[in-house]
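Hey team,

Filing this mostly as a record. A colleague (T.K.) asked me to run one chain through the structure pipeline before their review meeting, and I want the input and output archived in the tracker in case anyone asks later how it was produced. No errors, nothing strange. Just documentation.

Input sequence:
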Amino acid sequence: MGKTALLNKLRSSIEGFFQYIAGFISRAGVTPNQLTSTSLIIAIVGYLLVVVYKNPLILVAAILVSGFIDVVDGALARLKSMATKRGAFLDSIIDRLCEVIYSLSLIEIGFEPRLVLAYTGLSLMVSYGRARGESLGVSMSGVGLMERAERLIGLVVTLVVFIFNNTSAQIALLVLTTLTGITVLERFMHAWRLLGSNS
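Output structure:
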């Protein structure tokens, strides 16, 4: 049985706070799509700064700010009744682009490129599995351990570990990659079972 995504739990527990932030942003005339696009700009700027300074804390900051925006843009869309299919599509594409940029930043910081590549591929497969499954009528929400919010938290933890010990951080990324791979398998099995029963 699927679990409730950690990000959804956070949204529920502090919904009032994010509604307040969304209201403030709404008064400034910012649209949800503009806010979503900002997360991509943050990821790109973060990557460029990482290239120059090789500091993992820069990437930590980029991930945390992006995660914050991901929550607020959804709250803003609901507040302004602007939740559209186009906006959802844009959000999904930018989320994937940000994940790729974060992975490039990991390589710049000093993580093993082949491990980063494995993590990135599996991470994108988690998202693709959901998109493809739902396009076939299978609900994938909450299926698997490492949804996007959990993966981002895992990256932040891995980067904090990197500050203290490179070898331990490589192991942490290996664990994160393994858990992400298990999530791909969980989603595959979930969709395979339901699609078989509907055939």
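Quick notes for T.K.: Residues 40 and 97 are 7 Å apart (CA to CA). The two ends are 21 Å apart (CA to CA).
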